[in-house]
Amino acid sequence: MGWAAVSADDNLLKLVEAEEPDENDYRLQEQVGFILRKAHQRHVSIFAAHIADLTPPQFAALAKLRDVGETSQNQLGSLIAMDAATVKGVIDRLKARGFVELSKHEVDKRRLLVSLTAEGRDAIDRLIPLAREITQETLAPLSAKEAAIFMKLLAKLA
Amino acid sequence: MGWAAVSADDNLLKLVEAEEPDENDYRLQEQVGFILRKAHQRHVSIFAAHIADLTPPQFAALAKLRDVGETSQNQLGSLIAMDAATVKGVIDRLKARGFVELSKHEVDKRRLLVSLTAEGRDAIDRLIPLAREITQETLAPLSAKEAAIFMKLLAKLA
DNA sequence: TTGATATCATTTGCATACGAATGAATTTCC
DNA sequence: GGAAATTCATTCGTATGCAAATGATATCAA
To answer: Which one of A43, A147, B69, B153 counts the least CB within 10 Å of its CB?
Structure first.
């Protein structure tokens, strides 16, 4: 009885495994998260090759400030997808470089207003053409049509 | 002559500007780098919701070790796209958790061999089904067909 | 063989990235 | 009006991620 039962269990196990051959062939390099991380790394590397003295988050902060003018730190953070702790560090470093200046909101005393300095505006205006090249080089492995499709799908994911 | 020349220059300038209206309408949220960063952030967040006690890089290290068995630290790093400094920290933390063990290469004394412990193998085997859910949820905004196209194009970029 | 190179690993320094805790100021709601 | 909840900013701790410098070991080449 013992032998027969074990044998039946073995067969059942094999059937189950045949229906789910997944467990054993998980391929890390094909997972979206892994490739996303690599694609992001590649982009950051291309960015650094074109703009050595500013990081992508710092550039994003300046570019957004150029769009919206003066805003609070948190507001800016939400516009460029950074939480409060992260945006503070970015703004601190931009302030130390003289690219942004801070002031207190007159009415709401909690808020810290951030705005571009003249130097910051010059910098971002000067860097935007380079940023276009960065975008182009990042998308270079794709044809124009592929790039358009990719951007549409990527936007859906983000 | 002076007036005529200036006038001609003005017209020329306007033509050039008409051909390149770019400078003023750089849209950060449409740049591939910015969206790539956001998509990556979203994936990391989904990952954390499913696997709270391990980060994506730590998971990648375990998954790759499961594939290839014992390897050197640097070799593992190149397999999962981490430089030497980064992979060291990841392996250190996995070692502290008892998921990997280190040993010296007998022949080449520079190399530090990394391998899964029994506990590490149990962990990765247990987590792989969750990782499949993470991949699925990350791609959820796309239809099956869109996801297939996206993965092909993303792989070209990375 | 030995001197130049290259590889493996470590360390340091800097810059995101985010959860959690804290304090100050504001808004909401009863 | 005032207590409760919310918002804004800061700080701390932990974890990538990478450049650059360093030391130990291997390999290559003259």
So the answer is: B69
> Which nucleotides along chain D are within 7 A of a protein C-beta?
7-13, 15-21, 23-27
For residue A41 the two structure tokens come to: 């790394």
* Residue among A39, A56, A151 minimizing CB distance to B158: A39
| β-bridge partners, A112 | A104
Helix, strand, coil proportions of chain A in percent (round to 5)? Answer: 70, 10, 25
Q: Say how far apart CA A127 and CA A90 lie, in whole Å.
A: 17
> Where are the strands (E) in chain B, listed by range?
71-72, 100-104, 112-116
Q: Which residues on adjacent β-strands are paired with residue A116? A: A100
How do residues B109-137 score in pLDDT, each as one tens digit?
Answer: 999 999 999 999 999 999 999 999 999 99
DSSP state of B143: -
B11 band by pLDDT with thresholds 50, 70 and 90: low
Residue type, B151: M
Identify the pLDDT of residue A90. Answer: 98
Q: How far is CA B25 from CA B22, B45, B61, B78, B89, in A?
A: 6, 31, 42, 39, 42
pLDDT value at A146 more than 70: yes
Which residue minimizes Cα–C1' distance to C24? A110
* pTM for this prediction: 0.86
Task: Give me the half-sphere count of Cα atoms (radius 13 Å) on the Cβ side of residue B156.
Answer: 15
**Residue at shortest CA–C1' distance from D8:** A110
In which residue are the tokens 């990765």 written?
Answer: B124
**E strand spans, chain A:** 71-72, 100-104, 112-116
**Which distant-in-sequence residues (6+ apart) come within 8 Å of B41 by Cβ?**
A81
